[in-house]
Write a structure and sequence with these properties.
- The chain has 2 domains: 57 residues, Arc Repressor Mutant, subunit A, CATH 1.10.10; 136 residues, Tetracycline Repressor, domain 2, CATH 1.10.357.
- Helices cover 74% and strands 0% of the residues.
- It contains 10 helices and no strands.
- It is elongated, with a radius of gyration of 20 Å.
- The chain starts with 8 loop residues before the first helix and ends with a helix.
């Protein structure tokens, strides 16, 4: 049995699996999906290819796991942020604010790389499912606000989030982008007939 750096074999295996997933995500983001192979991932993680096969039997298995991991961590952070918000507008703001914070950390890069990776059909279908799960609480909050055509409204507002994420990735200050984006969101979601003044929009 190899020497382990954990209190148990189970913990050691969990650490090795996490190291392999981290290495696979790093390769995916920097080199593309085609480069995510058991040999490359093992080399990046400092493990023999035979060790990688104890956890993942193919490149497809690695990509399937990355697909899940790319959303799990972000979804947990988004859920915590939205759970702390009172009211649907505040939940929308929390979703946007946390999404931008995660984007500034680079958390969205694996999912973005997967979107353009030409994944096997099963992985592609799961990727779509995970994306829909991620935006479902945001879409529900928009509907609770009584927005006209809530599904379309949510999609249009989400377009602002994508633009804001691109701005942050291109070096725009996170605070300034977040403040301006949330101001625009408040204007878009203001009840029909109401007036959102400059002070309200910028708060």
């Amino acid at each position: 049995m190899p020497k382990i750096n954990a209190s148990s074999v189970a913990e050691h295996r969990a650490q090795q699996r996490a190291a392999l997933i981290g290495a696979a995500i790093d390769i995916l983001v920097n080199e593309g999906a085609a480069a995510v192979t058991p040999a490359a991932v093992g080399a990046r993680a400092g493990l023999a290819r035979s060790s990688v096969y104890q956890y993942f039997d193919s490149s497809a298995a690695l990509l399937a796991t990355i697909t899940e991991e790319a959303f799990r961590r972000s979804n947990e952070a988004l859920a915590r942020a939205m759970a702390a918000a009172d009211g649907p507008l505040e939940r929308v703001e929390a979703f946007f604010g946390e999404s931008l914070r995660l984007g500034a950390e680079g958390a969205h890069r694996p999912a973005a790389a997967l979107m353009n990776a030409g994944l096997p059909p099963a992985c592609q279908e799961r990727l779509v499912e995970l994306h829909l799960e991620q935006v479902a609480p945001f879409r529900a909050a928009v509907a609770q606000l009584g927005a006209p055509e809530p599904a379309l409204t949510a999609d249009l507002i989400a377009g602002m989030l994508h633009t804001a994420l691109a701005a942050v990735e291109n070096g725009a200050p996170l605070g300034a982008v977040t403040e301006r984006t949330l101001a625009l969101v408040r204007r878009c979601l203001a009840p029909a007939g109401s007036t959102v003044g400059p002070a309200d929009a910028e708060r």
